[in-house]
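ok so dumb question maybe but i'm new to this and my supervisor (M.) told me to 'just get the structure for PEP-utilizing enzyme' and walked off. so i did the thing. is this what she meant?? sequence i used:
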Amino acid sequence: MTTQAKTDAPVSGPYAEHVVVLGEGPRPDPAVLGGKAARLGEMLADGLPVPPALCLSTGLYTAFLEESGLADELHALDGRSARERVLATEIPSPVAEAILAGYERLGRCRVAVRSSAPREDSAEQSFAGQHDTVLDVADDAALLDAVRTCWASLWSERATAYRAVDGGPGAIAVVVQEMVHSDVSGVAFTVDPVSARPHRIVVEACQGLGEGLVSGRVSSDFFVVDDRTLEVVEERVRHKVTKCAPLGSGKIGMTRVEAAARNVPCLNAEQLAELCEHALFLRRRYGSEQDIEWGMRDGTLWFFQTRPITTGPEAGNAAAHTGPVTPYVTPQKEKIEQDTLWSRMDIGEIFVGLMTPLGESFARYYQQHVHLDCTSALGARVTGDPDLPMGYVQGHVYLNISYSAYVMAQCLPTRDQWRFTSRFVSEEVDLTGYENPFGAFPGGIADALSIAFWLRTTANEATDMKARAERMSSSRAYEFDRDRAVDLTRMSRRELDAELRRRLAYFHDMHVGYMPYYIHAFGFYAVLAELCKQWLGNEGDNLQNRVKTDMSNLRTVESAKEIWRVAQAAKDRPRVLRIIDETPLESVAATLRADEEGALFWKEWMDPFLRDHGTRGPQEMEITHARWIDDPSYVFQMIRRYAADGYSSEDILRRSGSHQDTTSHTALERLSLPKRKAVETAIAMYRTYSELREIARMSMITSIWLVRNVVYEVGRRLLEAGVLHSTSEVAYLDFEDIRGYLAGTASEAEAFDRSGIERARRLHEYHKRLPEPPLTFVGTCDPTAAVRPVPDGERLEGLGSSPGRVVGRARVIEELVWQADEFQAGEILITRYTDATWTPLFAIAGGVVTDIGSMLSHSSIVSREFNVPSVVNTKHATQVIRTGDLIVVDGDAGTVEVVENP
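this is what came out, is it supposed to look like this??
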């Protein structure tokens, strides 16, 4: 690991006694070395595999203050000012010489520099994440800067708040430890930190450095080992696309996992047994359950830290419950809880997939403040209790179909509840004999009033629907431009609070305005389907599918066409295309803007594209996901792909929106004039509402992006104040806490509980371990239930959602931004689910296969639009199929077969 031979020469100089080589000499004193260093010293003395390390004791920090004259000055400053003062102060020569002499003793290798507070990693407080760490430090100047950073973190607000019960800042030690560029890293818990099940050692492992796992930026494998037998009793191997790794001298960042390592376990059984043997030793050694950080390089295991687990499993928490759970947010009568139909199928495509704690809390805000007004906009006079329409299971959002059908029964088109219920039921649920536990909506005067309200609302909708779409489109452009002109960083907290309120009001109005288009489009399609079924038979199926796929003017498909046009423009400018092709993704935008020709291209092509489409992003209600305008990496990936494949803007136009369907036209001609007019009217209304829906949808998703910008400005301030360790931790905040912070006067550290952030992170990681919950279910759901495996992994059955049969090589896409440029034209796209941001890949895909979905999900609609065979709702295609497999996708039969596995 080292770059230069170590030396046994003692550290000399006036402060030599404050530089301690860990693992040597007497038992380390946590009051002098800090908790982390003391533990590392004990582990080294016990012969455990710990990289060589030294500690700059609390005495050296005190010497730094005295030599620089800061001792009295800092106590007169607030925490933030004190931190800035330390960072701005050069380390006096006598102290610097002691540090560098210790560095010489380590062999001047690359090192990790970590803070070690006296009360850190104690049985009472862990202080995990409260102080700073600097990785991959490579020279004298960088080392001194890193040490100063760790000293300054003593004064961060997060550390100040965490130790508030103990009084003043005290002192801090620093660990300087040989850096291990781990091939595999992770954490091991000697007890499951979330579930209360006994005899479970939980190991999470990722490719690369452990910082990617801790920050939640990479996928990890999950193992459970029986602490009595050291046998692996549970294993979940995930597709791993990215890892945290050295990118250059002293620089750590994200990079791709090698293709051969993406689907294989990070650890084998022997390596797990070795790791767990050491973990059990540490549990016995310290007499408490341990949270252990480890890494492996060239097959050799190393330990970087161990600390007691100071918070145990929370038995009352639904996320940690091991049996069936109800999605209801408040307790309900037993019959209601047991007989409610829940669905997360096609609920606007904005709640698809696992939500982060922030995303889920934002969904709860929508539920409490927006959803009922959306229901009223559909013509429902009585909207009821805001706690009832939505529910949550292991971070997934569900719509209460039973309650929604009950409420929507006030409207004439959905008086028959089955018309609403059947729209959201997947094949997993048999509703034969099902009765809605909420019953039928009351008759009499209440019913008459509801019908009158629906008629009035519908009449207003008919006269205003086109004008409202135009108003929404104009407002979207205005709000987008206004956001670009506003500097949120210069606003006071009070001003930022007012700004968030303004944006939440816009968020409300855009969702309420959008909902009628969405529901009426689906309603008129249902009318069309019924008319086709009664009057046209099998020919009717062809007609309604043709109408459904006639989306060539809709914006979800238009975004792919526009990227194609931008790619064509880049191809016409070789210098621009070279910048896009050869510059690292994260630097493409800045490089283009700094180049004369690139800047002109950006102004002429990128700015208009991002203004029209830039607020798109995956899982739109999940506000932690960057939009295209925030991070255009995906757009550049697709420009690279389209340009490399040699497509022009006309190719996509030919592939979509130019289908000929003479069979459907002939079938209509055979109908009588009244019937033909009825079908044509249903088609016209469906198309009208679909087009208006797409116009309004851009305004709706832009409103989410506007809220996101304020949230991340709060995150920036929390990071600056030291409350957050990185911007990735914004995902573990609660939206109501953000609103409360902006509306109140509490400091950042007072408004946000660090232990709550850590608890949210652990629960989110627990959710990620569990199998995908069902699309629909009645009553309760067991989030720990395992998915039934496919025999031999050779054949999958799902829902054929776009016709045709294709043979091709599979490409599993787990992280769209990182993998878009890997996707080759004609490959079969394999993924869990898709949304509007995936559309550009469909234009070059040979077929599409997803784990979840329905006939009306994004995957199905866009596959039909591009004439791509598709099978959705396979449950576990991403677990069975591997990149490179030769597979057969039959969109008519709804099957996927692996015919060759290289």
